[in-house]
Design goal:
The chain is α+β, with helices and mostly antiparallel strands. The chain has helices at about 55-60, 65-70, 105-115; strands at about 30-35, 45-50, 80, 90-95.
């Protein structure tokens, strides 16, 4: 996998005549880039298939890695630490939502946010 990927600005034709799909909830035009790193922060997979208005969980589901996981092609005991934009599954560990959580759920969230595998420890452009 290359360490650098260059993409040109999409044209109106590339957008299917609908550039508004690239306008995200933060108020600017974007592509949705999702990447998966290992515990040593090496990129293992990335996907730039969706416009900026696409929800993160949908973008993940449409990625090659998301499709492999959905088809049960990911070997045990591997899992991905995701943030609260994703759905929990056998291979996706996410924080428990809400406040005033039980001690176990709070400990899970603390571990997830402070572990070396935490999504919060990976540099983000957002």
């Amino acid at each position: 996998m290359p360490s650098t990927a260059w993409y040109r600005k999409p044209s109106i034709h590339d957008c299917g005549g609908k550039p508004k799909h690239y306008y995200n909830r933060k108020g600017f035009f974007a592509l949705n880039l999702q990447a998966v790193c290992d515990a040593d922060r090496r990129f293992l997979s990335y996907s730039i298939k969706c416009p900026g208005s696409t929800h993160d969980s949908t973008t993940f589901d449409l990625s090659d890695l998301g499709k492999k996981i959905a088809a049960n092609e990911m070997l045990e005991p591997y899992w991905i630490a995701g943030d609260n934009a994703h759905r929990a599954s056998l291979h996706m560990v996410v924080p428990w939502p809400g406040r005033n959580l039980s001690e176990q759920k709070d400990a899970h969230n603390f571990w997830l946010s402070n572990s070396p595998e935490s999504p919060s420890r990976v540099p983000s452009a957002c």
